[in-house]
Every structure is written in structure tokens, then in C-alpha cells.
Write a structure and sequence with these properties.
By secondary structure, this protein is mostly helical. It contains seven helices and no strands. The chain is elongated, with a radius of gyration of 17 Å.
């Protein structure tokens, strides 16, 4: 497996993390609402502001690898900020920022894939992140429920931080510095 395929696996792990993060709050929402005194409407915002912010994936990006690493760093920082949010408004704002950071990573990752995979190789390469995202999205509520039950809802966000550090290292390590020569 060449570096570019390993890059796609690392990007797939990022997509899996974003997917699990999206759905983990469904299980943690009740605890968050109770601890932060959220209204029912604020609880809905808490869950759905993240996927709404992911719509920013349509925004074009330049400087693919550096932007991707910046987006991952922003996701890690907003995860930490979410864990220490003092109130619902702050947490909802952090979730929106997480969604934007994830959108930046997804867009930059797609552009990296387009740069390193040409022709008939592109779609098989893009299957890797999708194949990892689907089970992660399904596992998200289980993860969120277990973490919330035995630790605290705040750990649903804190566990992202070391995972993001690992993802940044893998992306930086495996992303080829030059695109392959055109065939």
C-alpha cells in the first residue's frame, strides 16, 4: 500500500470520528440538557447545529494539506472547548465550530484525494472514508451512551482530543508531498 492509500485510510478515520461525534450526542443529549439546564429547543439546536454546519463542505479550499491539518486542529480545540462549556449557548457555539472544522477537513480531504487519485482510482479511494463512516455513525449513540453513563457527557468531547492528535500525525505522515505524474 502506497502512502496515498494510507492517507485515505487516515482520512477515513477522521471521517469516522466526525460521524461518531455527530451521532454520539443523541445519547448524551438528556444528560447535557439536565446538567446545563437547556430548554427543549436548545437541546434540538445542540444536536442539529453540527450537521447543519457540515454543509460548509461545499466551500472550496486551497492549500489542501495545511488547511486539512488546520481544520483538524480546530476540531480538537473546539472539542476541548465543548468539554468545558459553562452553559448551553457556549456548547451550541462550540458544536457549530466543530461542524465547520469538520467541513473544512472533509473538503480539503476530498481535494487531496482528487489530487492523488486520478481516473478510475478516485472512486475506490473515496469508498474507504465512506466504509469507515457508516459503522461509526451507527456506533456513535452507543459510544455516547456508554461514555455519558460511566464518565460524563464532557468526555464525549474530550475523547476527541487525543484522537485528533493521532489523526493529525497520521495525515502528516502518510500524505504524499507531490501528486503523482499524469498518466
Amino acid at each position: 500500500m502506497t502512502g496515498r492509500w494510507q492517507m485515505m485510510v487516515a482520512l477515513g478515520l477522521c471521517v469516522a470520528l466526525f460521524s461518531a461525534n455527530w451521532t454520539a450526542l443523541h445519547a448524551a443529549q438528556e444528560a447535557i440538557s439536565r446538567d446545563l439546564h437547556l430548554t427543549p429547543a436548545a437541546g434540538v439546536w445542540l444536536v442539529y447545529v453540527y450537521p447543519a454546519a457540515l454543509l460548509a463542505v461545499s466551500i472550496p479550499v486551497k492549500g489542501r494539506l495545511s488547511v486539512l491539518l488546520l481544520g483538524l486542529g480546530a476540531f480538537g480545540l473546539t472539542s476541548a472547548a465543548s468539554a468545558f462549556a459553562a452553559n448551553g449557548v457556549m456548547l451550541i457555539g462550540c458544536r457549530a465550530a466543530q461542524g465547520l472544522a469538520a467541513a473544512i477537513v472533509l473538503r480539503a480531504g476530498f481535494e487531496l484525494a482528487r489530487e492523488h487519485f486520478r481516473g478510475t482510482e478516485l472512486w475506490p479511494a473515496l469508498v474507504i472514508p465512506v466504509a469507515l463512516a457508516v459503522p461509526a455513525q451507527i456506533a456513535g449513540p452507543v459510544i455516547g451512551g456508554v461514555v455519558t453513563e460511566f464518565l460524563s457527557f464532557r468526555w464525549v468531547f474530550l475523547i476527541n482530543v487525543p484522537l485528533i492528535v493521532v489523526a493529525m500525525a497520521l495525515i502528516a505522515l502518510f500524505t504524499p508531498r507531490r501528486a503523482p505524474a499524469p498518466a
